[in-house]
Amino acid sequence: MTQSKKLGLTSKILIGMAFGFLIGFALRTAFPESQWVTDYLTNGLFHVIGAIFVSALKMLVVPLVLVSLVCGTCSLSDPSSLGRLGGKTIAFYLTTTAIAISLAIFAAVMIHPGNASLASENMEFAAKTAPSLSQVLIDMVPTNPIKAMTEGKMLQIIIFAVVFGFAISHLGERGKRVAALFEDLNEVIMKVVTLVMQLAPYGVFALIAKLALTVDASAFKSVLMYFLVVLGALIVHGLVVYPTLLKLLSGLNPIIFLKKLRDVQLFAFSTASSNATLPVTVETAEHRMGVSNKIASFTLPLGATINMDGTAIMQGVATVFIAQVFGIDLTLTDYLTVILTATLASIGTAGVPGVGLIMLAMVLNQVGLPVEGIALIIGVDRLLDMVRTAVNVTGDSVVTLIVAKSEGEFDSETFHNPEAGKLKGNLTDQVQS
Question: Which of 17, 295, 306, 333 sits most deeply, having the most CB atoms within 10 A of its CB?
């Protein structure tokens, strides 16, 4: 009992993941055709606990983004400061996305995972229509901010919060009173985050147990090479490219960064949702890494919406893989088109359900490849989605640190202190049981 109390959040999540996988795998092996297991565990207990946990995280996303972004924008009273911050952040996100998809295409071309024999398989896939670039720009401005919040349209919420916060910052004493109210609300929301995190080990256990019970193992046999190429590219981008950029552009120690980001990456892996992980990402950036609220409240919600490096890697490998399966040779122009399309598409389709496959359909159409080829990779997409989400939140945090350092909104002492954040009631401290 005493030892259990010493376990931090990361340890508890890892234990929950391990137990979830072992129990799910054991049940699947012992009762492969059991309707009871399917009804009462897979679609019953595990589904309910996991869904409640993810819903609790998502419950916090809209109020967290709105309140924290208003707070951050309030402190940017200078219009040039807001424009500089936004331009710098978006430029970094688009650059890392372009690097990610270039890396993916290079790996897929060199390793050649596609096999023409797979073209005879059933390849029916009904892709949703991806929005045009002009429609994306129009939809960024909400006609009804309340409706945007109820529907969770993140880009619209971000635009409204920035405008609202900017207006508050220019109202003098009245604006200061409203800003103080939002600061108090922000503290309340962060407290709610720490309370919700107490469910983390149990929620992660249920999510992984259900995954172990439902993933079709036979799917790995036909696309194992594709799976390994995407996984390898994700690992290289997350553990080599990002730390290198962090070191070169900010001078910060990548090892310290990765250690402090473990909780965020584990939550992203478990939920496969950057938005659901956002409360943990914001808390970690501010209290563990020393990023000011002004920066974190702007760059992280924006990154959860438009930064899709992990998805871009999947698109790059999948595009080359499908071309190889159908025996279609892609030209240098096609590869450049894929890089440009996927990079720009990462802004517009981030809030659409099934974003990875929708964006992939857009990219395939752009270079004349059959969209039906997506059916080949659906079987392993869920597992890869978990990994690429962890890569996405890593990229959000790297860009946030780089921007914070360049803007002078970074506390070096907090970043280098391994115990930083615990005294402020952060997640690792609050979830001790």
Answer: 295
